[in-house]
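batch_manifest entry 22 of 60
target: CubicO group peptidase, beta-lactamase class C family
source organism: Pedobacter steynii
requested by: lab member K.T.
priority: normal
notes from requester: please return tokens only, no post-processing; we will run our own comparison against the previous entry in this batch. if the run fails, retry once and flag.
--- input ---
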Amino acid sequence: MKTSFKFFAALLLLSNFSFGQDISKKIDSIIADHHQKNPDVGISVGFIKNNEEHYATYGKLNAENQTVIDKNSLFEIASITKILTANLIAQAVLDHKIKIDDYIDNFLPKAYVLHENLKNKVKISDLASHQSGLPDLDLAKLIALDPQQPMSSVNQETLTAIINNCTELKDYGKYRYSTIGFALLGQIVEEVYGKSYDEIISGKIITPLRMKNTLTKDFNVKNRTTGHSPNGNVQEFMKWNVTAPAGLVKSNAADMVKYLKAVLNKDVAIGKAALITEKIYYKYENRELGLGINIMTDDQKTNYIKSGDTLGQSSMIAYNRAKNWGVIILLDRQNSKLRNSILKGISDAFSK
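--- output ---
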């Protein structure tokens, strides 16, 4: 009996190992094919299946540096920062600092004075699911003013004026992507914890997970990739200033895999918080949103997805809790079509 048990245990271990090797080869083949068709784009992909890590990387850090991109190479994760901010909001719920459907009125810095028409109207969950009805920054105008650093002219006074001068909510309860919404969420967590956003994200996500190559303001490091616009021109890494909680973070495949592992682990704070963010807070026609994350359901499979784009890089994070897999895709060029194509290939591979 003992011999039989050992035999079947060994067989199961071998089967899992073979599956891991097989999926790794399939995904590496997918990335290699995309890089062959897009040789000027640097790609770094990290993925996990049943807690087992795999990486596929192609390209060079930049045209002048022949160092190859690897799992530790630094990219802009851009709006993927929003799911980190949403996780901090959910952790504040677990810490009994806020309730997710509290109105924002009593949690904003004192500089904000909401118009009477806005009082007790906007909930924290509305900000995190892009349905607050509040006005947003005019990104096209900001890019025209400074094509390299469009957020350079945006400061606290800018945000305060936009919110304080708002007299009516526009299409409250309808989806409208919002950078300001996540800037406000960052300031709400600062208010309830009495610390800076940098201190909070470091204390609750970066340091506990030992994400040693995940950076906020100081990202002048040797293993940093170079950003490129869609036409191939060099693009600076963005400095987000007061809008930091919407897109500040720079990271790499290895660190973001650590984050994915924590998200899929229901026994740790980040995983418990992720479950809160995965509830549906907005649903209209084919669009479903949690807190800072898109919810895609197809054939009874639910994937949680968030994309990110700066002017020079594109990224994507996705995971499936039921199937226990997750993936981070990082590109050194703004190319949402390529990013989406890579995700589809990987998602299909995991589904088989």
